């Protein structure tokens, strides 16, 4: 009976994740709030992994939806010769910018021990419903202020995004470490502030989520299994 109830809770959890992942609001924050109501009986280790891996489904939808824009290979681009004629170079350059945007998060990851201690400290002091609610309010106000500010975007197409802008967006993405901070929300704000239009900032944010969430999901799953993790109920 408990397993069936957990299955229903997981479905509700998935719906919340699926809806909030596409909006500039924190999907993880909403899942933290949902846990206060749904009351899963799985172990804390499993839930820590589950919160991250469940987001991969929504990100895979981006791959399916924008596959033609993201696939860098072709039979013959009609312009180059040799090996290079099999590449769609605008798409290759877009992926290069996505990789550049991943650099700030990668640098934090290379800090190993100090980074891990930082994450543990964040979880210990900020992983609660009060922090989540506060950050949701702060980012809601931030979006209102940015939208009210007169501005003319200088970058309206993905192909026009510069490597500097990509790096700035990547730096804003690091703020998503704070529970309740939307990864897409923070990166869209970063994109808007450095001159991107709403469509350009939004699409770049979704594309950036592909390597970030794939890496985060894989890392969480490996760590969970390495610790001998099993899908047990909490004691």
Quantity of strands, as a count: 0
Strand content: under 5%
Report the biggest beta sheet as strand number plus sense, adding barrel if it closes.
none
- Which structural class fits the helix and strand makeup? mainly alpha
Distance between the termini: 16 Å
- From the structure provided, what is the oligomeric state, counting identical versus distinct chains? single chain
Strand-and-helix sequence, N→C? HHHHHHHHHHHH
Radius of gyration: 19 Å
Count of separate DSSP helical elements: 12
The low-confidence parts are: none
Secondary structure: helix percent = 55-70%
The overall pLDDT average reads 83
Shape: globular
Short description:
The protein has 235 residues and is mainly α. Helix content is 69%, strand content 0%.
